[in-house]
Design goal:
Shape: elongated
Largest sheet: 5 strands, mixed
Strand order of the largest sheet: 1-2-5-3-4
Distance between the termini: 99 Å
Number of helices: 9
Length: 255
């Protein structure tokens, strides 16, 4: 009787654990599957690199069945590759606009124009905002003589590495205007944009076919017209340098 008990105890102490190996490989496969599903849903360059790194770690450092047949390439669906290329083009284009923004901000800093100039990289492109007091006298659309050199400098900074559409827009505050030259803020804003555009395109280094002008009058304020300071902010000229590739991958061909 004592021998049977000892034999039974010995068998319990030496349970076969070989089933753990295929179980571990199954978990590895499931992890790989979830990574592929996650990457396929939204792929960009950064995620793709992270996915590759994870796969390399799994297949190169693993043990068991997966360690003997580690794949060297990660298959990516065709539509995901297309999305990756579109994202890459968009990021490259944003980098190019960012470099142009840096040049504009350097010019603004050197000439101490921070209170009158502003730059912003938006989904619509690189936006340069100029307060009207830098260029125009009150109620006038002709650029002041002392600031014409500034407009020429900006035209040099708008020398583009690749053809891009550039839209110059005039804005006013909500105080009505009615004088011998302009019967409305619309007309004043349009003529300010046109006059600024004409100085910009005088440079032989820019293509006039890429430039256009428009005016919104007082109808697109950036702040409420309820104080003198806010009205000053709303009186502005904007220069929008459009991207070549939108965030959704759509290309914008210059007209």
């Amino acid at each position: 009787m004592s021998k049977k008990r000892k034999k039974k105890k010995h068998e319990i102490e030496h349970i076969n654990e070989s089933w753990l190996l295929p179980y571990a490989d199954l978990l590895t496969l499931l992890l790989a599957l979830f990574i592929v599903l996650f990457a396929s849903s939204s792929v960009d360059e950064g995620r793709f690199q992270q996915m590759s790194a994870v796969f390399s770690e799994i297949f190169e450092s693993g043990s068991g069945i997966m360690s003997e047949s580690a794949p060297t390439n990660v298959p990516v669906p065709d539509d995901s590759v297309g999305e990756l290329n579109e994202n890459s083009s968009y990021l490259e284009d944003q980098q190019s606009l960012g470099e142009m923004q840096a040049d504009l901000e350097e010019y603004i800093a050197v000439n101490e124009l921070e209170s009158q100039f502003d730059t912003e990289l938006t989904s619509e492109g690189l936006l340069l905002t100029i307060r009207d007091s830098v260029l125009f006298k009150s109620g006038e659309a002709a650029i002041s003589q002392e600031y014409k050199s500034l407009a020429h400098d900006i035209s040099q900074l708008l020398t583009l590495d690749r053809p891009r559409q550039v839209i110059i827009t005039g804005h006013t505050d909500d105080i009505p205007i009615h004088n011998a030259q302009y019967s409305s803020n619309w007309k004043l804003s349009v003529m300010r944009a046109v006059n600024f555009l004409e100085i910009i395109v005088q440079s032989n280094e820019v293509d006039p076919n890429l430039f256009s002008a428009k005016g919104y009058g007082e109808f697109k304020p950036i702040v409420p017209n309820d104080t003198i300071e806010n009205r000053s902010k709303n009186r502005r000229v904007e220069v929008l340098i459009q991207p070549l590739v939108m965030e959704d991958g759509t290309s914008i061909e210059p007209q």
